[in-house]
Design a protein that fits this description.
By secondary structure, the chain is α/β, with parallel strands linked by helices. It has a single domain, classed as 4-Layer Sandwich (Purple Acid Phosphatase, chain A, domain 2). The protein contains eight helices and 13 strands. An eight-stranded mixed beta sheet has the order 4-5-3-2-1-11-12-13. A five-stranded mixed beta sheet has the order 6-7-8-10-9. Strand 9 and strand 10 form a beta hairpin. Helix 1 runs parallel beside helix 3.
Length: 278
């Protein structure tokens, strides 16, 4: 079902774009929206910050509709036109990690486990998916897989739940995001994850870190370094972008589309939900 228009009068131009957790190969992936976003933006650097392809899910059930192929095509087209693409491996696409030692390159596409990105204003950012800072994923993979199955089930229930809400005239509300947030809040998971990533970033002497993994877009300062999380393309449909002056910002694609609908001339409508960091 087509829910997002792909045509805009002018593309949005950024120095760098960071996306993560698209989970292509799963029914929950919002690949159509991601394809529209990639068509809408132009950038010099494109970082795919892990879990772009969900190898875990594809191992058990093969699911790959045309919309998911379209995302890959958009990435390949950007690479062909000069965008430097960095595919940073995650836990769901860890099958690619075996190729990192071979310094796998396909044109302008590099497959790596982590990267160092220097912003336009000279800051050095450590780019990593983040699963290595998740104790459950790193040391108890079977528990992580059970949790993944539960999450996918909740996403499916979420679709039925919101279809019922829509028929009653209520707006979209993410049951899965609410449940995930409540559970992780109980064990301080998100907070501990952010602190661990920031601590390692500071230990290595970086100015900031860009990651994904927990499906929670965020910009904040921790332990004297800037923590950036690009979010996901399963629920929030968010991306982290760098402007040509080095300013970083989180953009939510649904808000961009809604703002364009409300004000097609002014692409900087106040209705767009954005987060800024110095």
């Amino acid at each position: 079902m087509t829910s997002q228009p792909e045509k805009f009068s002018e593309p949005a131009r950024y120095r760098s774009v960071f996306i993560s957790d698209a989970h292509l190969g799963t029914a929950g992936s919002q690949a159509e929206k991601l394809s529209a976003f990639l068509k809408h933006v132009q950038c010099e650097h494109l970082y795919l910050v892990g879990d772009i392809i969900d190898g875990w899910r594809l191992q058990s059930t093969f699911f790959w509709p045309q919309e998911h192929t379209n995302v890959i095509r958009k990435i390949l087209t950007k690479s062909k036109r000069g965008t430097q693409v960095y595919y940073v491996t995650g836990n769901h696409d860890d099958f690619l990690r075996k190729f990192v030692d071979y310094e796998l390159r396909m044109g302008n596409i590099r497959v790596i486990n982590d990267a160092v990105h220097t912003t336009a204003d000279g800051r050095r950012l450590f780019v990593i998916h983040g699963d290595l800072f998740d104790v459950v994923t790193r040391y108890h993979r079977w528990v992580a897989r059970i949790g993944d199955v539960a999450y996918i089930t909740l996403l499916r229930a979420n679709r039925y739940f919101n279809n019922a809400r829509a028929r009653l005239g209520y707006p979209y509300w993410s049951l899965s995001a609410y449940a995930k947030h409540k559970v992780k809040s109980a064990v301080n998971f998100i907070s501990e994850f952010e602190k661990a990533v920031a601590h390692e970033c500071r230990r290595r002497g970086f100015d900031g870190v860009v990651c994904g993994h927990i499906h929670h877009a965020e910009i904040k300062t921790l332990e004297g370094v800037t923590y950036y999380n690009s979010g996901d393309w399963v629920e929030s449909c968010s991306a982290l972008v760098e402007h040509f002056d080095g300013k970083m910002e989180i953009i939510y694609w649904d808000d961009v589309v809604n703002a364009r609908k409300a004000s097609p001339v002014d692409s900087k409508s106040d209705n767009v939900r954005r987060l800024h960091a110095a």
